[in-house]
């Protein structure tokens, strides 16, 4: 499915026809549908008889292979952790699968072995004509060694092969990777482009749209995983926080982040610390005479809190939370990080800095 805000880009890609470059890099914030667009383009390129609107026919033999998940000329390169999560979602699992004691967690990186396997696969002649397509997402999941291995393929691409790279953090890619690809940039949808989405999205997804920075698909995914309840608790806990309650709330949040509810939603310390940053960002914006961006439904409560803060306290707290968020994926102690984060916030609300 190509969403309304991606239709102009899709039409440009269709109009290029056989003039597409051998490598395209789709760049933009997460939650816009870049991967879906890459998959639609891959389907079109492999189809024997694309429709008038540019989409694959879904009926020819190559389309049937792709729909069955075994097209030999379509290669997807994704982190093992993402592949495992997609498989679990496809099987209808609502909770993160439990790992056996001592089992190794699936990698969140694209490993160099995957690129070597890709090199071997592309050394073989295509099974259905000369066209082959590689979808690599997210491209920033490559480390420097993996990226250098891919670079060799981009510099000397096999005949008829098109590489579709997807990235939400292009600055983390090697400059040489970016320079070998034609970059296509995706912007946040306008209000007009979101009209159809808002008409069909549920209330939770709409409430989470602002928190997700205006990215509709990110809001949908979070809503499907119980994001509405998570947001309600977050707002309730912070709105009534007093300095003396910090240690108690840190303990409650530690249990919350370790709960099945949070695991099923993929909600951990990185996501919580990100929400904290956005909450304080809105407080700072109000204190400076601006508007609420991430929590519009809570503007009244935020305004009351902002009135108790100095500008220096608000901006100082935000900068401190940025530093905490940088280490949120690998905390030495979850409880201590939560206590530190909440203490800094409580001091800012009290109008002091430390």
Could you tell me the number of beta strands? 5
Computed CA radius of gyration, to the nearest angstrom = 23 Å
Shape: elongated
- Give the termini distance in whole angstroms: 50 Å
What CATH architecture of the largest domain do you see?
3-Layer(aba) Sandwich
Q: Please state roughly what percent of the residues sit in beta strands, choosing from under 5%, 5-15%, 15-25%, 25-35%, 35-45% or over 45%.
A: 5-15%
- What's the CATH first level of the largest domain? Alpha Beta
Count of structural domains:
2
User: Structural class of the helices, strands and pairings?
Assistant: alpha/beta
What's the total helix number?
A: 17
- Which fold name fills CATH's third level, the topology of the largest domain? Rossmann fold
Biggest sheet record: 5 strands, parallel
Uncertain stretches of 5 or more adjacent residues = 94-103
Descriptive overview:
By secondary structure, the chain is an alpha/beta fold. It is built from 17 helices and five strands. Helix 9 packs across helix 10 (216-224). The longest helix is centred in the C-terminal third of the chain and has 19 residues, at 269-287. It is elongated, with a radius of gyration of 23 Å.
